[in-house]
From TrEMBL:
<comment type="subunit">
    <text>The complex is composed of two ATP-binding proteins (PotA), two transmembrane proteins (PotB and PotC) and a solute-binding protein (PotD).</text>
</comment>
<comment type="similarity">
    <text>Belongs to the ABC transporter superfamily. Spermidine/putrescine importer (TC 3.A.1.11.1) family.</text>
</comment>
<keyword id="KW-1003">Cell membrane</keyword>
<dbReference type="GO" id="GO:0016887">
    <property type="term" value="F:ATP hydrolysis activity"/>
</dbReference>
<dbReference type="GO" id="GO:0015417">
    <property type="term" value="F:ABC-type polyamine transporter activity"/>
</dbReference>
<feature type="domain" description="ABC transporter">
    <location>
        <begin position="8"/>
        <end position="238"/>
    </location>
</feature>
<dbReference type="GO" id="GO:0015847">
    <property type="term" value="P:putrescine transport"/>
</dbReference>
<dbReference type="GO" id="GO:0043190">
    <property type="term" value="C:ATP-binding cassette (ABC) transporter complex"/>
</dbReference>
<dbReference type="InterPro" id="IPR005893">
    <property type="entry name" value="PotA-like"/>
</dbReference>
<dbReference type="InterPro" id="IPR050093">
    <property type="entry name" value="ABC_SmlMolc_Importer"/>
</dbReference>
<dbReference type="InterPro" id="IPR027417">
    <property type="entry name" value="P-loop_NTPase"/>
</dbReference>
<dbReference type="InterPro" id="IPR003439">
    <property type="entry name" value="ABC_transporter-like_ATP-bd"/>
</dbReference>
<keyword id="KW-1278">Translocase</keyword>
<protein>
    <recommendedName>
        <fullName>Spermidine/putrescine import ATP-binding protein PotA</fullName>
        <ecNumber>7.6.2.11</ecNumber>
    </recommendedName>
</protein>
<keyword id="KW-0813">Transport</keyword>
<dbReference type="Pfam" id="PF08402">
    <property type="entry name" value="TOBE_2"/>
</dbReference>
<dbReference type="InterPro" id="IPR003593">
    <property type="entry name" value="AAA+_ATPase"/>
</dbReference>
């Protein structure tokens, strides 16, 4: 089980059901050996795209390409992709080893070769010791690892995962996420994963493609998407954000200034991206980019307000600070930076740098 995987491309992929467009002209490349996640809210078309890649759903328009070859007309069995689905049922009457051997039997491999490949696949998911158990004698996480071994055992060109971890509890899911990531590194294959869980998408993937209403709205490496969302939808879907509305008042060397009531906000942007004077602007400001300032601390942007609500999260606090001009601002503080007793009504000074926020646009869905 070595190699560099295969490259996948979607070209103008569209799926309509009657007059309803479930997938709307999606073009996307997945590089060899890459872990790509399709992320979006329920009904955004993720599963439909995965089913088009697998060959179970025929696109209305567009094409699926594997290493540049058009595979759109091929039936699923000729594509030979590995698949793991949510709550993927193992054959209950077969042992772990028999389950994993199943795709090899279908492909008519000899007993010796089968045995060697099953052993390698089970070692890969660290379940070698459980080969003779029945599925019901395993935990949910172990069963899901067996499903992964079964999907990988025949060395598929591509591994397709549809919410493979969503049936598991939170702690187990976090553990399996790490294992899945390590597994991807070990096998070096191309993985396409579907989830609506933004944390899972950020932590697992080399690249994330965000979908809304069947359209690809933005794609890129997790950190880039999180730091540079282009739209309000992306900023909002990938974690929490504050959205600041204002009007461009002046140009300054680092960017521009917007006014919101009597508050001035300095925003850095590249010279060629400056909006015109008087135009409305929407900024996305992540809660963790806002600092709590002491009386004489300086920052590019400073606002005052009062704590309206707060919650303790172990690793830190979330404060909701009510400000006169910007409304309620959500602030995430590490414990060491938070006031000892962040009581409601406490007056606070908040500050952030002109590079902390990013201009975004409202989505037109
Ligand atoms: P979820 O996260 O809830 O699984 P999803 O992003 O995977 O959602 P899809 O299952 O791809 O979404 O569905 C996209 C849209 O297409 C949905 O509005 C769904 O109702 C619709 N759809 C899917 N299959 C069919 C079908 N066979 N006939 C009609 N509409 C369909």
């Amino acid at each position: 089980m070595s190699g560099t995987g295969h490259a996948l491309a979607l070209r103008g992929l569209t799926k309509r059901y009657g007059s309803f467009t479930a997938v709307d002209s999606v073009s996307l490349k997945v590089e060899r050996g890459e872990f790509l996640t399709l992320l979006g809210p329920s009904g955004s078309g993720k599963t439909t795209i995965l089913m088009c890649i697998a060959g179970f759903v025929a696109p209305t328009e567009g094409a699926v390409l594997l290493d540049g070859a058009d595979i759109t007309p091929l039936p699923p069995e000729r594509r030979d992709f590995g698949m793991v689905f949510q709550g993927y049922a193992l054959f209950p009457h077969m042992t772990v080893a028999e389950n994993v051997a199943f795709p090899l039997r279908v492909r008519k491999l000899g007993a010796a070769e089968r045995e060697a490949k099953v052993k390698a696949a089970l070692d890969l998911v660290q379940l070698g010791r459980f080969a003779d158990r029945l599925p019901r004698q395993l935990s949910g996480g172990q069963q899901q690892r067996v499903a992964l071994a079964r999907a990988l055992v025949f060395d598929p060109a591509l591994l397709l995962l549809d919410e493979p971890l969503s049936a598991l509890d939170k702690k187990l899911r976090a553990e399996l996420q790490e294992e899945l990531k390590a597994l991807h590194r070990r096998v070096g294959r191309t993985f396409v994963n579907v989830t609506h869980d933004q944390e899972e998408a950020l932590s697992l993937s080399d690249r994330v493609a965000i979908l809304n209403h069947g359209k690809l709205v933005q794609e890129g490496p997790p950190a880039h998407l999180y730091e540079h969302p282009r739209t309000r939808f992306v900023a909002d879907f990938l974690g929490k954000s504050n959205f600041l509305h204002g009007t461009v008042q002046e140009s300054v060397p680092e960017g521009f200034v917007i006014g919101a009531g009597t508050t001035r906000i300095v925003q850095s942007v590249a010279e060629n991206r400056r909006p015109a004077h008087g135009s409305p602007v929407l900024l996305s400001l992540r809660p963790e980019k806002i600092a709590l300032l002491n009386e004489d601390d300086a920052a590019d942007n400073v606002v005052t307000g009062r704590i309206a609500a707060w919650s303790y999260l172990g690793a830190g606090y979330t404060l909701v600070v009510e400000t006169p001009d910007l409304g309620a601002l959500r602030v995430a503080l590490p414990t060491w930076q938070a006031p000892i007793a962040p009581g409601e009504g406490l007056p606070v000074r908040l500050g952030w740098s002109s590079t902390a926020s990013v201009p975004v646009v409202e989505d037109v869905a």
